[in-house]
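Lab channel / #folding
Pinned by the channel admin:
"Please post every new chain as: sequence first, then the structure tokens as a reply. Keep commentary short and put observations after the output so the thread stays searchable."

First post following the new format, from NK:
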Amino acid sequence: MAVVVFVLSAVQVGGAGSTSGSLGLVGLDKWLHAVGYAGLSFLVAAAFGRRGWRSLTAVVALVVVFGGAIELVQGALPWRSASVLDLLADAVGALVGVAAYRGWRAVRGRVRPV
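Reply from TO:
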């Protein structure tokens, strides 16, 4: 998943960078960042296999640092640009992904096999 996010972050794209979205507040690119990083943080949390807040905080930090590194790479590419707002969308997505993982683990722990 991290490789997919990295490759999609480095390729030349058109149209996803729209600055207006729902009610003109959030562009499609920010939604794509949030969804991608939510999925990434969910999978990283599952790979760690722990539910504690320390582990989940480390997952968020790791995923956000990864997003920051990608923004630095994008800043060096002539067809891309770095954005603090993209990094913020990455962080929001990472938090959502970890929350979804925690919820999934809680529900999974309550369901008894037949």
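NK: The CA atoms of residues 71 and 84 lie 8 Å apart.
TO: also worth noting, The chain has a mean pLDDT of 83.
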